[in-house]
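Need beta-mannosidase's 3D structure for a figure. Predict it.
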Amino acid sequence: MTTATCLDGEWKLIYFPQGKWPIHHPNELNSLNLPCISAQVPGNVELDLVRSGLISEPFLGTNINELRPYELYEWWYSLEFSAPPTMAGKRTELVFQGVDCCATYWLNGEELGSSDNMLIEIRLETTHSLLCDGVNKLFVRLRSPIIEAMQRSTDAICYGPLTNGEQLFVRKAPHNFGWDIMPRVVSAGIWRSVSLVAREDHAWSELYFYTLSVDKNLSAAQIGLFYRVATDPAYFYHGLEIRVTGKSGTSEFQMSRPVLFNTGSLTISLTNPQLWWPHGYGEAHLYEVTTELIYQGRTLASHTERIGVRQVDFIRTETTTVEAGGEFLFKVNHISIMCKGSNWVPMDAFHSRDASRYKNALQLFSDTGCNIVRCWGGNVYEDHAFFDFCDSHGLMVWQDFAMACAVYPQTPEFSESIRLEARSVVKKLRNHASLVLWCGDNECDEAYQWYGLPDPGVNQITRNLLPQMIQQYDPHRAYLPSSPYLSPEVIRSGNMNLAPERHLWGPRDYYKSTFYKTSTDHFISEIGYHGCPNLSSIQKFIEPDHLWPFNSKDEQWMAHATEVSGSQGHNATRIQLMANQIKELFGAIPESLEDFILASQISQAEAKKFFIETARLKKWRKTGIIWWNMIDGWPQFSDAVVDYYYGKKLAFHYIKRSQAPVCIMIDEPENWHVRVAAGNDSRESVAGTYRIWDADSNETLIEGSFEVEANGTSELGKIPISHAKQQLFLIEWNFNGRTYGNHYLLGFPAFSLKTYKSWLPQIAAISNEFQADEIGR
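Structure prediction for beta-mannosidase:
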């Protein structure tokens, strides 16, 4: 049992350029007339400055650039609070779930400790003598992470992007220092909740549940539990026991065992278990499990949580070739899973707002039929609420550790920081059924190649330290060193295309170019295409004088591209890239903003639909696609299919159709025909009827009945075509009393935007899932 007092709410905040006054203790603040404003916890200092009227809304125009001077400030938070009488005489801790990031803590004038990692929980023990019966005063000093980074030692192997090299030396979310999808916001703040916690005399300090096995007939399973208990050692010899009780629907279990030491493990056998399945493959069943510590019939400690029973096998090879093949495959409960999902990027440039966006953002994944989400390594680690949603909605989670696109230090100091971070994060998240893979980083193996460095196998962080931490704290879950992982065999070959899992960015040219059509990978974990936000959203972050005409050098468009190094920087080209992709598909850049938005959204929608369906049509050579990305973390022009304000682009609707568990699709032309196939990503065979017709003439091109085996693909026939034509084929199918729709765009660009606009209502009308006249608005 744990007693806690929440310390969230209104605090006070003093701030000034670091070093301007050499203050080392809160008492020294009283002698200076320093700025002091009200602050919210959880919060970010910039949001407090906005609320106080000291700075403008950062997301409007180019205001985000005005935050740069505050990177060199220090910030002093303070709070007066009273501890409840129930805590008298108990051991207490101050628990900070997230502090950004280089902090020192004082309680009633006494220094409690320090921390320097934004990404993990901080616990500070407070002795009873420090905690007053009356009013207590808590101070938290946050130092500049930029100045801190300058003072850290490093080694010559370190490399990072020109615009954000500081990310290598402080444990903040890498994107904070500026990225191609996020602005530079080197923020500070107490960004997650704070509480004063009193520990009871008896408590479970660790409970780690895991699935040992699931019978191939799915009729039996074994789960394991590792536990650690905090109690008086004398109890171990006088009838102390552990009792575990679980229930999911009609499935129940209970087990009791003596507790003879403070740690132990046990195995529980289940008959006819309620298994956890990814979306589309079954229900995401969860057991409510209560673990009790019992002494002579009296419950000393009790903990309840939800766990999933599922066996996940991650099967991969070091390389792949067209001739010899290879593998990169997730199996859940012995069933191969066709993975379809999106990358999870920062929910907000100011992370104190993340939690408020979880539910709506994650619902987008469920609405589009995703069964996997990849938590990208440039971000923070999400909280339990995120994983709880994924647990209950059948969303498998691929979790990167928070390193991205750089060659990180190999110093003992940095290794120790990562060791502590991994231990904290792994132990926090390991009980979630949705978590299927730990990954060492995002694109750091590739970064070695970008910077002309040796084999990334020399990276001791991802090759030794992190796998050791997984083996120590979560040995029943798979680990991948990097995404993409460049194995020794791939490095020796000199051909990065031999990696079985890849990020397909390349030239970002026409979405049906050779680059996209001939990739040999099995699993695509990043692939994207630009799409303009809706007009109503753009008007919230671009001022009227900058809206139109289109100008790839406009400072406000460029600021929201995202660009962090000026008009000559790499990311400044993203606006022109979006225009070029429009021109590639339609032959010209439209003359109005409304048509520019619509043309861009059509280009993106057709591209992402093509990427997903190409993967499904090549099942099981292709085993998964995690496209980039679902929703923006700030207002911008990007690859996201939903903008920061939850405005859905056309691609959202096309993806929803392409990712349906049962989908009828049309392959690319071959020998003057296109192949029609039905894909079934479920554990049940399906049968129904279908029709495909020409959008202009309404002529039926092919129709009939279809049947597809479980987790299979069936060819339904072929339609003769002419390469000289540009046509829209409309597809409709019915099974289990429901109608579904899709379409196929035949022909080579340039297409007529006017013609496509006339087709759009017909595309929308199939199964009536969206309104054509709302697209781009």
